[in-house]
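Chapter review. Work through the record for Uroporphyrinogen decarboxylase before attempting the end-of-chapter questions.
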Amino acid sequence: RELPAGHPLQVGRTSASPLVTTYQGVRGDSTPVWFMRQAGRSLPEYRDLRVGTEMLDACLNPEMASEITLQPVRRHGVDAAIFFSDIVVPMKLAGVDVSIVPGRGPVLGNPVRTAQDVRDLPTLDEAALAPISEAVALTVAALGDTPLIGFAGAPFTLAAYLVEGGPSKDHLAARTLMHSDPDAWAELMQWTATITGAFLRAQILAGASAAQLFDSWAGALSLADYTSKVAPASALALSRVHGLTYGGDEAGGGAGAAGTRAVGTESAAPGAHGDTATTNPTRTVPIVHFGVGTGELLKAMHDVGADVVGVDYRIPLDEASRRLGGTVTLQGNIDPALLAAPWPVLEAHVLDVLARGKSAPAHVLNLGHGVPPETDPAVLTRLVEFVHAQN
Ligand code: CP3
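Structure tokens for Uroporphyrinogen decarboxylase:
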């Protein structure tokens, strides 16, 4: 379960970065910051590059995906890149008829409604992930010591699209199938976990320094349904990237700042952090788990094997931390709506988020959901500078 020898975490290029050390639970001098959906339509250079290329074609073009991933890092000086791709890419690579309709989202040619539809889903040949590995390799070579975050959609969020056939408000059809045909549902969860876990693992092995699982629509579920019908599949997906180790005294990586302060994870147990006496302890690739409207699910989402929990804007970070027993590193949770507010309003909100984030062991600043496409990119740049100037 060791990362490949040349991996950025393994050679010590990203292991002491503010993002990675904070994800490992160590509070640094300032709070690292990146934005969900930072690569995308808020940037004119993105819109220019995308002219004439469909979304999923852009995702499968390694040079283009890499360039789009780098754009917000160059422009804003964020502490991490997030890989430009989409949660439906592994379905597409498996051969599912899916496209992304601008302004709408993923749309399926043949929605999955019956047990037979589930059985007919194609298997993902892992060799098909080559364009993803290639794009990640190009990207990390260009990023230097800025870490790349790999990501994937969680099984429920993918199933919400597969069963509905497109975006939906309450994901009724998916939640109906969950109860009306539990065996088909279990099989569907197994299928989505397999493809999405393979997608995430390919990104980590090719050089991403952290993993984020997006269960964007899990907030539609009761805690009981989440725990019994969804969480096992999310845990299965994460098991593909769980416990991948780096560092250790021989590897020579990640010494310096992180070495003596870092919390090591010797075991594969999620969140089982404890101080170690080693100067350069073995650590595992950090895993972040995020969902929208998941205030009631935070603990259950941590329990599937996450190190860090991403919090949306509906619940303050101090309350989220309390629900997690005060022991879990948090990421979040600026309300994206305030990006369009006058600067003093946004500034006061950011200071409040940073103050509440102090109740967690460590905190990575982010939005409570993605960057709205109409956001003025200059506001994001100013926000990064402002956050870096605080402590
Ligand atoms: O910057 C980043 O965050 C990295 C790239 C990224 C995209 N999608 C690019 C994208 C990431 C991490 C995602 C994840 C994703 N995709 C999620 C989970 C995160 C979340 O927002 O909750 C979900 C639910 C999807 C499905 C999806 N794909 C939606 C809802 C949309 C928006 C449709 C629209 O046009 O409003 C997409 C398309 C998409 N994914 C775009 C981008 C940049 C827009 C495509 C375009 O430029 O036309």
